[in-house]
Amino acid sequence: MKKYDIIIIGGGPIGLACGIEAKKAGLSYLILEKGALVNSLYNYPLNMTFFSTSERLEIGDVPFMSVNPKPTRTEALEYYRRVAKQWELNIRLFEEVKSFEPQNEGYSIVSSKGDYLAKNVIVSTGFYDIPHLMNVPGEELDKVTHYYKDPNYYAFQKVLVVGASNSAVDAAMETWRKGAEVTIVVRNAEIGQRVKYWVKPDIENRIKEGSIKAYFNSEVKEIKEREVVITTPEGEISVENDFVIAMTGYQPNLPFLSKMGIELSKDEIMKPQYSEQSMETNLPNVYLAGVVCGGMNTHSLFIENSRVHAEQILESIVAKEARFD
Questions:
Q1: Would you say residue 325 lies in a domain?
Q2: For residue 168, what are the domain limits?
Q3: What order of strands is seen across the sheet that includes strand 181-185?
Q4: Is this model's pTM higher than 0.70 or not?
Q5: CA of 207: how far to CAs of 49, 167, 183, 185, in Å?
Q6: Do residues 67 and 102 both lie within one domain?
Q7: End position of a domain, from candidates 187, 216, 246
């Protein structure tokens, strides 16, 4: 069983930032990522554009150069790959953490490929792994997806998009531009206020002119092979359908945190317990970093405002000299 001063669970941008700070401090560390490098970003839509500007996504003092003011998913993937290479980060990809137990002076971690002992553990697992389900009949059909990738797949098809967030609006607009007949179902009375300011007028104008059919204050009741039943203020309707893109949001793996022993708030947010200054949880030498800190409030933290977590955590670890002798 190999020992490390720090094991970082999650190889997203903030996990990489934690690895960089650990390396700066001269501590032994290992980053474990269950998927590809910056796996959440990899699973974003192919044509996604960030809301943040490139400099606000930078880590490790590595410049992020982008062709446009707002970088794309492809640019971000290349940037973080370059960061990992430049810093020669000790990261193991496609290696999922299976168990976590206190042991001796640290914590025993068993992954899909190995056993480790860590004096300190940083959890930076993001929130893109678990979609919010609609819990309606037919959601398990092959034509339903909670992860939108490429609009070309939906060319000339009857597409129903669920949601009114950035991801839903992007899916609706991009598939419509590829010739899809698009219907959007929105639980609330309007398109979401957080939708990117340069995109929101576009979707609203397409709805207004009738190019995209929208049902507001409505919900999907049932998904069938060739149609979808929708509950609207005027009653139930049925629309012909080939594919459903359910952009209903995602949630962090809070059961994983709870299983580790990290306490969660008792309200609907289920915010993990941690120090705002050191990021240390109720478990000694176990820290949280990034979006996972917000619990179900996944809109409170982003790359740009959680990069600082890496520095806070390493300051705490170094101050306690919490390393293996």
A1: no
A2: 133-246
A3: 144-145, 243-246, 158-162, 181-185, 213-215
A4: yes
A5: 22, 17, 9, 12
A6: yes
A7: 246
Is the domain of 265 the same as that of 225? no
Question: In terms of C-beta density within 10 A (0-12 exposed, 13-18 middle, 19 or more buried), how is residue 248 classed?
Answer: middle
pLDDT tens sequence across 91-105: 999 999 999 999 988
233 and 199 fall within a common domain? yes
Indicate whether 59 pLDDT > 80. Answer: yes
Place of tokens 């998009």: 161
The answer to whether residues 90 and 72 touch, using CB atoms and an 8 Å cutoff, is: no
Q: What domain count does the chain have? A: 2
- For residue 108, list its beta bridge partners: 101, 117
- The per-residue pLDDT for 325 is 59
- For the domain that residue 146 is a member of, what is the CATH number? 3.50.50.60
Kindly state the helix (H) or strand (E) to which residue 23 belongs, with its residue range: helix 13-24
Alpha-carbon torsion 57, 61, 65, 68, what sign?
Answer: positive
What is the chain's length? 325
* 71 and 119 part of one domain: yes
User: Given the structure tokens 């919490």, which residue do they identify?
Assistant: 322
Distance of alpha carbon 230 from alpha carbon 130, whole angstroms: 24
Beta bridge partners of 244: 144, 160
Phi, psi for 310 (deg, rounded to 5): -60, -45
